[in-house]
Specification:
The protein has ten helices and seven strands. By secondary structure, the protein is an alpha/beta fold. Helix 1 packs parallel to helix 2.
Length: about 270
Amino acid sequence: MAGTDRSRAHAPDDGPVIILVDPQLGENIGAAARAMLNCGLGRLRLVRPRDGWPSERAVAAASGADAVLEAAQLFDSTEAAIADLEQVYATTARPREMIKPVMTPRRAAIEIRAGLAAGRPVGILFGPERTGLLNDELALADTLITVPLNPAYSSLNLAQAVLLVAYEWMKQSGGGTLGRVTTYEAPIEPGLHTRGSPPAGRQDLVAFFEHIERELDASGFFTAPDKRPSVVQNLRSMFVRMGATEQEIRTLRGIVKGLAHPKGLRRNPP
């Protein structure tokens, strides 16, 4: 469909960050950037694009969404790409065996809008074209986004997935030529804004993960090396799900340090 006002084709910076993890083809990155700008999103982050960056093929496929590509940021890891975010969503065709909230793009858009309105930086992870996000990456997210499609054929290409999620964001944020199509108010989570310390940033969480995993390795906790990845995923999911504040993460790190390196001899139990 045609209908582009080139004078307004800038890269907006007030929506969620779109993060493409291990994208394989420049063409798909460009098409995703085009979908983003269609829906008023402009903040793009790329994690280890397979064919390198910048990409002439991405520019060609973006079909005029150059501003999104020019502003794109490059990262070496998913952890680095989400370090400054407080709320992270991850897209997946299969919810997997994880205890996490699973939402449709519409429901997620409601929450994302509420999060941004409250001043919380938000990002959405999209996996590579062939495999999607790995369990280790899903474990870093607060919430999973799944599109209810034909269960016998639910695979989407990268740009389609970005467009579906971005379109629901645009509707909830009142963008587009029709204005706000539907209006919802996200429920306020009990205690979400009442604690004195702000929510822990993703950088603080990842640092805590690395700290506790390092001490567990040193203590010989992982007695079955083949089970270590699944145990680490479960631990990370558990701590992400608790929605800790910065102070709570500092307390947890102090506890881990105290248990691993006690200052004095422990008393014998009676």
